[in-house]
Write a structure and sequence with these properties.
Layout lengths: L6 H16 L5 E4 L14 H4 L8 E2 L24 E2 L5 H17 L4 E5 L5 H6 L14 H4 L1 H14 L4 E5 L23 H11 L8 E4 L33 E4 L4 H9 L5 E3 L2 H5 L3 H7 L3 E2 L33 E2 L12
Parallel strand pairs: 1-4, 2-3, 4-5, 5-6, 6-7, 7-8
Antiparallel strand pairs: 9-10
Helix pairs in contact: 3-6
Length: about 350
Amino acid sequence: MPGIWTVDQTIAWREVTDAVHTKGGVISCQLLHTGRVAQPGIEEHPIVRQTTAPLPPVSSSATPLEQSDEPGDYNWDQIAKLPRALETAELSRVVQDYCLAARNAHKAGFDYVEIHAAHGYLIEQFMCDGVNKREDHYGGSKENRCRLLFEIIEALIAELGPDRVAVRLSPTTINPTTGKLYQMYFGVTSSDAEDLWDYAIQKMNTYPLAYLLLTEPRVGALSVLPLDDPSIHQPLRNARFRTLYDGVLIGAGGFTPNSALEAVGAGAYDMIAFGRWFLSNPDLPERLLLGNPLNLYDRATFYGGGLVGYTDYPEFSHKQNETVSRYDLIEQNLIKVGKNSK
């Protein structure tokens, strides 16, 4: 995972932002702390050792990360199992580190920063009482458990100004049929999930955010092929938050071109963010606009660390089917999912 806390990293990112701006685009830098999900041994990395920040793995509490049957092909042997609970005095340093990253992102030319408070990483480990067992003013009530998130939001807005800071959350509530959460990320749960997310999202209205992005709780295993992925057939679970948040609301997770249009048309979201389809289609906006076929993505290569499956997806060409390519094309109407699909 790339960083943005050193001078060299910041300079390197400028090449990326310049390329995006040359194409007329805007780009947001997503800032996250993995917390207890940090890979074992990362604290020994030379760049990490040079910092004075609390070394990983850390979390809200010393709550062990246990293997679960949640969707996702995680290598559980490569995830730290027992984190150290951050001391109260250390949390101001965590906020400062987010500020440093935001400051560097601005220097690197990013238009926004997005606080990643989702998917079972550090901030969500504070927000949810399945992990957070603290007895100080960062634990206990939902207000206390959300304290770190809002301290980070306030600090970054003070650093960058209004409309330059965004937040990503991954709300998930209980499925009444199974009695379990619709989705769980790295074992993070909360006994008051519905109240927690209602409170957190409503309070976002008090800040001049660029946008709020919500992940729909329907992400399947990495090994599932695009057309076999059951997540794209599942209904929206987080559309109800539209009535709680007054700002720009973006949805993500399991969307297809058709279901994205339906979600926006129904007023559930203002915009839809694509991850998988954008990775496999560098010219995705143009393809969606013109109805051109999409490159099928290969999720097995998403986290491989190399060029294959990362930067080798081609832009659309009417001759693509006549050339040698490791990626197959699919017509958009064949991944049509939504109320009008068959």
